[in-house]
Design brief:
The chain is α/β, with parallel strands linked by helices. It has helices at about 60-75, 100, 115-125, 210-220, 235-260, 265-270, 285-295, 305-315, and strands spanning about 20-25, 25-30, 40-45, 50-55, 90, 110-115, 150, 155-160, 160-165, 180-185, 190-195, 225-230. The strands form two sheets. Strands 1-2-3-4-5-6-7 form a seven-stranded mixed sheet. It has a five-stranded mixed sheet with strand order 8-9-10-11-12, with helices on one face. The chain is globular. The model is unreliable at about 1-5 (pLDDT under 50).
Length: about 325
């Protein structure tokens, strides 16, 4: 099967980012169209603290997010927010990828919090500017700013009296260092890229098997509102879609290995069925590299040839750089 490329609008045709209040003083900052390098972020506003959940891929997009927080602060009758200098500030990174961390440096007074492996990964790679694999982007003036408060499994943050629980589920899933922000009082969950609402799941740098563990943990939290890493605010049905896709991926892997196919050959022959409606179907090529490795004994998060997998995704995409409107 050849690539089922979706038609993507130009950057100037995308709707502007929007801020949605998902609970009292808890906001999702949604960036359409949620494609490659266009992530969601979040903010929790207290009387004495501001918590940001992730930054953005580029200087322009991160500054837009900070301006939105300043606007929320003004609506609440305060002077300045995350972009203007008012209030104690914290920034949580849900994982290491540049669309969620490149803009960290634009919050110089924030306490940056993340998993230990998130810090290690950003220190190793720096700012990601993957032009060539993706269409060119104006990244802006950015420098690496990894978390400097790290944890392993669980950390509680308090925004005034509101607890925000940070959880790492002890396995690799989207990456080795996925962290979710759970607000039990409101049953609101910021999942990072454990959930793509409307997008194809992506486990190249994590694990298929570990993703099932993480998705089960998400369901056990029993959220009502989910802010995914990409796509519109949704409910737990998006977790079900991710699980269904990963089971499909495992079945494709078994059949392809029995037939002696490579990951790229398997991706081209796979019938995506209902999953063809998800954006970025080329991710199946990268995902199959991870699924094949696990069938050969790789443990969740073990290093594999990521460059080869990304090249196969470009090949699956007709040899064109992957669409990116960041």
């Amino acid at each position: 099967m050849t690539s089922t490329n979706h038609d993507h609008p130009r950057a100037d045709e995308l709707p502007p980012p929007r801020t949605e209040e998902v609970a009292d003083r808890v906001y999702a900052y949604i960036q359409p169209d949620g494609g490659w390098w266009i992530n969601n972020t979040g903010v929790v506003l207290g009387d004495h603290a501001v918590l940001c959940i992730d930054s953005c891929a580029t200087e322009r997009r991160t500054r837009g997010f900070l301006d939105a927080i300043d606007g929320l602060q003004r609506q609440l009758g305060r002077n300045g927010g995350a972009g203007g200098g008012g209030g104690a500030r914290m920034l949580v990174n849900t994982h290491q990828h540049g669309d969620h961390t490149n803009g960290n440096c634009l919050l110089p007074e924030a306490t940056i919090i993340g998993h230990r492996r998130c810090r290690e990964a950003i220190q190793a790679t720096g700012i990601l500017r993957p032009d060539g694999l993706w269409e060119p982007v104006e990244w802006g003036d950015l420098e690496p700013a990894p978390p400097f408060v790290t944890f392993e499994h669980r950390l509680d943050l308090y925004i005034d009296d509101l607890v925000v629980e940070l959880h790492h589920f002890g396995t690799a899933a989207h990456t080795t260092n996925d962290v979710v922000a759970w607000i039990p009082e409101h049953r609101v969950l910021f999942t990072g890229d454990l959930v793509f609402n409307g997008g194809t799941p992506f486990v190249l740098m994590g694990s298929v098997a570990g993703s099932f563990v993480a998705l089960d943990c998400l369901m056990e939290l029993d959220p009502v509102v989910i802010v995914p890493g990409h796509g519109d605010v949704c409910g737990p049905e998006a977790i079900d879609v991710a699980g269904e896709y990963l089971r499909f991926l495992q079945q494709v892997t078994v059949e392809a290995r029995d037939a002696g196919l490579t990951p790229l050959e398997a991706a081209r022959q796979a019938d995506l069925g209902s999953f063809a409606r998800l954006s970025h179907p080329e991710r199946i090529a990268g995902n199959l590299h991870r699924a094949f490795a696990e069938c050969e004994g790789a443990r969740p998060g073990d290093p594999i040839d990521v460059a080869a997998a990304l090249f196969d995704m470009v090949t699956f995409n007709g040899g064109r750089p992957l669409t990116c409107q960041a």
